[in-house]
Amino acid sequence: MGTVTYAQVKISAELRPRTEYNHGYKTLAVEDQDPAFLTTQRTRLNLDYKSEVFMAKVVFQDVRFWGSESQLTTNGNNVSYIHQAWAEWFMSTNWSLKAGRQEVAYDDHRIFGSVGWAQQARAHDMAILKYTGDISAHLGIAYHNSSKDNNIYTGPDAYKALQFLWLNRKTDAYSGSFLFLNNGKPYTKETDENDNITEQGIRYSQTIGGHLKTKLEGFTLAGNVYFQFGKDAGGKDLSAMNFSIDAMYKASEKANIGAGYELLSGTSYDETEKNNSFTPFYGTNHKFNGFMDYFYVGNHINDVGLHDIYLKGNIKPGKVKFNAALHFFSAHKDINADVNKSLGTELDFWCGYNHKEQVNLDFGYSHMFASDGMEALKGGDKEATHNWAWVMLTFKPTLYKQ
Q1: What DSSP character marks residue 34?
Q2: Of 39, 56, 329, 398, which is least packed with CB atoms within 10 Å of its CB?
């Protein structure tokens, strides 16, 4: 944490417009479907404060589609809001308490992530008790209600109650983490004659597992193992797992190549009694399983699961870094009785350029080569062209610092 002998104040901003072209993004297009062309923008004002007693952060954020507001706007759509507002109290050298609306991200962002790619990103209303030592420990607690008059939650969030414990041991040789998540989703137990909820229950699922990352003779190796059990939101028994392994080899000072595999278990189309589908709840899921977001980005939940075998690499010959990945997708469980488990292949290409540490220019192109299984799973036409392209500018000026 370090000792701060005087208060530090920083005011910064972020402006991030992104233009996207898509024809078959997230789901298959049909042959005569017109492509979509749109621009979104994230604008942030960040206020940071730190003293030897506590630190605090407030992030004001505006996310909008270009053209969604009148030129003579009165802010009728209420697109500006607080993305983060938290304070962390340094109770001692080792202990601190962080409370408020905050981004929560651990390890490779598979279960908890900030979802920074999405213009709106993700933030939680919660408190986290932290211990920092040879083994770091974070205990997070959240509980949501819609009003002060009862114990009913009908809000938009993904849970009513949540608790997690994250343990991490980090050395020069490796970083190893353990995570336990108790995720509680509300369900209606009783309603009145007007269908208003009068009694609500919570169904809990548990996720337990860990993440390991190490370096070995030019290789960076990382992997996850997670298990889920308990009850899903619909009350079914849950038994699911996630396994992944990722390897990256440093071929030269300017180039890296790698490969990996991930399994997210699924439920067969003819299974009705039990849920075997793994859910990567609050992760940065755009980071995994292809950039076209066919899987686990607001979709593919409680479905047939996924095998993802991929190759990847990057090279930086000058100021521009070029990246590429090739994914081979198949379902973990049967889609239906008429198609096999193959889903298709996705090619992702993206690159980035940083200008004097003040401006980033990033762009990319992705193409999905779909199979019969993907058409059966998603609908659309596998013979149509499925592609997505984007370009993004990011400006992050520091306005004031003391």
Answers
A1: P
A2: 398
Closest to 328 (Cα-Cα) out of 395, 260, 375:
260
Residue-wise pLDDT for 145-177, tens only, equals 888 878 888 877 789 999 999 999 999 999 999
* Residue 181 counted as domain residue: yes
Q: Say if residues 297 and 289 touch (Cβ distance below 8 Å).
A: no
Cα separation of 138 and 95, whole Å?
Answer: 10
CATH, residue 265: 2.40.160.100
Phi and psi torsions of 188, nearest 5°: -85, 130
**Tally of domains in the chain:** 1
Cα distance between residue 122 and residue 144, in whole Å: 16
Q: Which domain holds residue 334?
A: 8-68+79-401
Does a structural domain hold residue 1?
A: no
Residue closest to 303 by CA, chosen among 276, 330, 273: 276
Residue 188's beta-bridge partner residues? 200
* 35-52 b/e (C-beta count within 10 Å ≥ 16 → b): eeeeebbbbbbbbeebee
CA dist., res. 106 & res. 180, Å (int): 12
Sign of torsion, CA 77 78 80 81? negative
Q: How many helices (H) and strands (E) does the chain have?
A: 1, 20
How many CB atoms are located within 10 Å of the residue 5 CB? 6
Lowest mean pLDDT of 22-31, 138-147, 186-195, 377-386, name the range: 186-195
Residue 22 included in any domain: yes
Query: Is the distance from CB of 367 to CB of 347 less than 8 angstroms?
Result: yes
Q: Which of 134, 122, 129, 33 shows the shortest CA–CA distance to 84? A: 122
pTM of model > 0.90: yes
Predicted local confidence at residue 125, as pLDDT: 96
Encoded tokens for 367: 């193409």
Place of tokens 């003819």: 270
Q: Is residue 54 part of a domain?
A: yes
